[in-house]
């Protein structure tokens, strides 16, 4: 392995312990963990493929834990190492017997060919051969345990002789029985002949049974059984491998299991490769051990910038609390994503969480507690909202999902785990599509920054309204009437609604503005609605009032500085404003909500980039900016400005379609995270990467079944963020 540290190390831990039996085998009448085990392995493959697209030089490891230690297995094993040992001859399906027979012939013990084929399954023979290949020092032990050919032949002769004696005894008994019955000479002769034949048949069966028992008790067979039980002990170290190697091994494992399953259809006595692996599953759940081994891998690659661990489990550890180990991983800058695989197919909505649900069991809560937190606007979470996932309004989510079917597991891995968290694409940032400086440093507005001027020269309402109108219009591709600047929109507002003491009615101004610039609409929302709009990249117009002393506290907290502070200013807290919220209003202000976190809301202001945090400010929640005095209540008001796709003109629709087609083709190389996302074909129901669909937004062709369909809102192209308005469907 290269001494240079890779840029990315990604691990995947798969829980196959006894507590996962129901989840892995849900819906299987024959209790075979095939389909769901395949789904879990597909999840690991998807993760590796996604990481390969991000970084072809990444290292990936895949571990399984919860193996049956009572039967000789280690608690944790490196799946890729085991797969590599089993599948070194990928083109030689069903050749485990041949491989071991070939090795026996090379060691001059080919006389055991019959026993290899009869006593070992093909995969057992493959395991023994692979183990001997890894441990050449045990080949002699294996050969010495096999009786010499002459000894085997002597044993056969002896058993046949015993069979003849047994057969003769049976024949004699048969003849005696006939004679006692007083039969004549002809019948007695026939009975004697029959006794010879019957005695011979019985003798052969007895001889075969003796031979079979002798083989079962032989040291060679005991050694083969021990190797089959303990071979995974060779793979107790989790080994990070080049991502290309991991993909190759997992594909081979998947393909081999499919070939085995296909060949098994006509012969129910044969086992598949996954059946073979299943015999090692369903032990205790050493989650701490698995996490500890993973931490060792990450500590060996401290220079890796991206460090991710994905855990598929039910959270029920049997070797102690896993949360301290999860904390150690987080302190080592490892982002943990957890997947709870449920057995109940009806209880897992497509949803991300900020807090645990009341209905969760202890295992779910443990997995949730281990998961890393990311901002709700971090790519690809806004994409998930576009394709139907529920996202909490807190502005932060845990990298955790509960899935209850193999299809849901596929979807979660393709939508969530396939994209690099923390890499927000600038293309997709609506706020980034306007000039912050032109808004923050507008000379026309800077005179409003003195709180004492709020009641006398309140023009900030026009500037903030113009900004959100401008941003909403930018989301319409190819708008027929173009894109008026913030300055143009503001001037029109001020001409129609000149400033006056006490300011202007926001509803009145927005009603006029959305009439001037179709197809814009607006609606008043609460804080939760405002957060949801921001999570969908729609900045929200916000108005509030403060008392005179409240403005003083506000101004002092975010006061202008000669140079920006080294650390961002903290959010203004409720406690700081509590003494001032019951007083009379001393003027209102209008700003733009741009960001939300669990413990704060962040607004864009227009008082210069030396004010606040480079022109923005944060508060604990909306109540910080409320008044509830004797002169009346002044709540914080949020206004979501949006448009409906159905109200676009024909020309705008055409431009929109053309733009999305262009984005699909031209942006794939620059922003590959968009096209890594998968959509489900309505015909064949396969999950297919967006990049693989052919056609246009109006008619796409699935590369799997070649059927055409029209993408539905919230299904395919909404994942491109071009639909940043609100769909009317």
TrEMBL record:
Domain of life assignment: Eukaryota
InterPro entries to which the protein is assigned, alphabetical: Papain-like_cys_pep_sf (IPR038765), vWFA_dom_sf (IPR036465)
Stated name of the protein: VWFA domain-containing protein
Organism: Chaetomium strumarium
């Amino acid at each position: 392995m290269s001494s240079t540290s890779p840029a990315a190390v990604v691990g995947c831990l798969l829980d196959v312990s006894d507590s996962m039996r129901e989840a892995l085998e849900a819906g299987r009448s024959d209790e075979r963990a095939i389909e769901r085990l395949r789904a879990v392995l597909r999840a690991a493959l998807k993760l590796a493929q996604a990481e390969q697209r991000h970084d072809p030089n990444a290292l990936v490891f895949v571990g399984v834990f919860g193996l049956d230690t009572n039967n000789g297995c280690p608690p944790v094993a490196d799946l890729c190492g085991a797969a590599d040992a089993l599948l070194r001859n990928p083109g030689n399906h069903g050749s485990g017997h041949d491989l071991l027979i070939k090795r026996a012939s090379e060691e001059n013990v080919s006389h055991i060919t019959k026993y290899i084929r009869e006593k070992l399954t093909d995969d057992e023979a493959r395991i023994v051969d692979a183990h001997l290949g890894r441990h050449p020092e045990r080949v002699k032990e294996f050969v010495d345990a096999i009786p010499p050919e002459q000894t085997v032949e002597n044993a056969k002769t002896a058993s046949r002789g015993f069979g003849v004696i047994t057969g003769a005894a049976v024949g004699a008994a048969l003849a005696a029985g006939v004679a006692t019955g007083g039969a004549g000479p002809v019948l007695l002769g026939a009975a004697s002949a029959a006794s010879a034949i019957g005695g011979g048949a019985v003798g052969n069966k007895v001889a075969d049974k003796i031979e079979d028992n002798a083989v079962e008790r032989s040291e060679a067979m005991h050694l083969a059984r021990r190797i089959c039980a303990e071979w995974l002990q060779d793979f107790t170290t989790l080994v990070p491998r080049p991502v290309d190697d991991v993909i190759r091994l997992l594909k081979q494992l998947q393909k081999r299991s499919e070939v085995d399953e296909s060949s098994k259809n006509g012969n129910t006595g044969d086992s598949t490769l996954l059946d073979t692996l299943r015999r090692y599953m369903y032990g205790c759940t050493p989650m701490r051990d698995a996490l500890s081994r993973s931490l060792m891998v990450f500590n060996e690659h401290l220079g890796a910038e991206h460090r991710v661990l994905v855990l598929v489990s039910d959270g029920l550890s049997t070797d102690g609390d896993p949360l301290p180990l999860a904390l150690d991983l987080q302190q080592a800058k490892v982002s943990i994503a957890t997947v709870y695989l449920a057995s109940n197919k009806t209880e897992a909505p497509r949803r991300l969480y900020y807090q645990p649900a009341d209905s969760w069991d202890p295992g779910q809560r443990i997995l949730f507690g281990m998961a890393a937190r990311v901002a709700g606007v971090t790519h690809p979470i806004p994409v998930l909202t576009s394709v139907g996932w529920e996202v909490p309004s807190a502005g932060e989510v845990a990298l955790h999902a509960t899935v209850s079917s193999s299809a849901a597991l596929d979807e979660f891995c393709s939508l969530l785990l396939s994209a690099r968290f923390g890499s927000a694409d600038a293309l997709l940032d609506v706020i980034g599509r306007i000039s912050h400086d032109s808004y923050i440093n507008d000379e026309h507005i800077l005179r409003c920054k003195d709180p004492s001027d709020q009641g006398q020269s309140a023009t900030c309402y026009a500037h903030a309204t113009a900004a959100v109108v401008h941003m909403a219009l930018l989301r319409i591709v190819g708008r027929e009437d173009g894109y008026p600047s913030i300055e143009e929109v503001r001037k029109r507002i001020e001409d129609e609604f000149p400033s006056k003491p006490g300011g202007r009615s926001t509803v009145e101004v927005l009603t006029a503005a959305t009439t001037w610039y179709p197809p814009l609409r607006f609606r008043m929302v609460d804080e939760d609605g405002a957060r949801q709009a921001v999570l969908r990249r729609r900045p929200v117009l916000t108005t509030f009032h403060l008392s005179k002393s409240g403005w003083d506290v506000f101004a002092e907290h975010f006061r202008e500085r000669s140079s920006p502070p080294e650390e961002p200013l903290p959010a203004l807290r409720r406690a700081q404003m509590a003494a001032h919220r019951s007083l009379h209003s001393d003027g209102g202000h209008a700003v733009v909500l741009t960001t939300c976190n669990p413990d704060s809301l962040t607004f864009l202001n227009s008082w210069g980039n030396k004010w606040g945090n480079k022109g923005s400010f944060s508060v604990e929640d909306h109540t910080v900016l409320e008044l509830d005095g004797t002169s009346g209540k002044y709540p914080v008001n949020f206004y979501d400005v949006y448009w409906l796709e159905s109200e676009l003109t024909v020309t705008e629709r055409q431009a929109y379609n053309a733009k999305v087609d262009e984005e699909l083709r031209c942006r794939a190389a620059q922003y590959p995270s968009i096209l890594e996302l998968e959509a489900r074909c309505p015909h064949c129901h396969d999950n297919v990467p967006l990049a693989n669909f052919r056609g246009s937004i109006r008619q796409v062709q699935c590369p799997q079944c070649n059927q055409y369909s029209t993408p539905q809102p919230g299904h395919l192209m909404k994942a491109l963020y071009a639909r940043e308005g609100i769909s009317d469907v």
